[in-house]
Amino acid sequence: MWQTIKADVKAIFDRDPAANNIMEALLAYSGLHAIIIHRFSHRLYRIGLRTLARLISQLARFLTGIEIHPGAKIGSGFFIDHGMGVVIGETAEIGENVTLYQGVTLGGTGHEKGKRHPTLGDNVVVGTGAKILGSFKIGDNVKIGAGAVVLDAVPANSTVVGIPGRVVKRNGLRIHPERDLQHDDLPDPVWEKMNQLEAELEALRTRLNQEELEPTEEEYPLKYII
Known about the structure:
The protein has 226 residues and is α/β, with parallel strands linked by helices. Helices cover 37% and strands 18% of the residues.
C-alpha cells in the first residue's frame, strides 16, 4: 500500500504545475488526503469492518469535501485536482494513473444492486463537473470533457464531450471538426447542431421569399394563357 501512496504523491508533481515541494503536497492537497484515507478505509471494508470503514470515509468527506465510498477500487497514481464535490460510488473501479477534476461524479442510475457504478481504465482524464453514471467501461486513455454526462461505454483512446456524452475523437482522428480536450475551449455538439438547424431555416426562409416574388395567375393571367 505504501508504494501505491508513493505513486499517488508522485502523480501530483507529474500533473500539477502548481506543486512546489513534498511538504506542500502532504499538507495542502485535499485530493491526496482523501485518497490516503480511502486506502486505509478500503482495507477495512475488504476485511468486513464496513461500518468502521464508512465512518472513516464520512470523516474524510467532512475534512476534504470529497466523497469516496470505501468499497471503490482505485489503482495507483490516482490524482484529484482541487477535488471539492467529487463523488465516487461503492462499485466504481478506477485504473492506474487516472485524473479527476473537481465536481466529478462516478455514480449509479437507480436503486439496482450489484455492480452499478462505472469502471475507468488506465490514464483516463475526467474534466470538471463531468458525470459518469451507470455500470459500463471507460476505456484506457480516454478524455472526458468538462460538464459531460456519460451514460454509455466509451472505447479506448477517445475524447468525449457534451450532454449526453458523445465521442468526438478516436485514436487520434477527429470524428467532428473539433479540438482536443481543452477545458476552456471544448467543442459543443449541441451548439453545432443548432447552427446547422439555423442554416437550414435561413435557406428555407430565402426559398419562401423567392416564391412570393414570382408572379401568380391572378396577377398575370395572360402569361398562363399563353
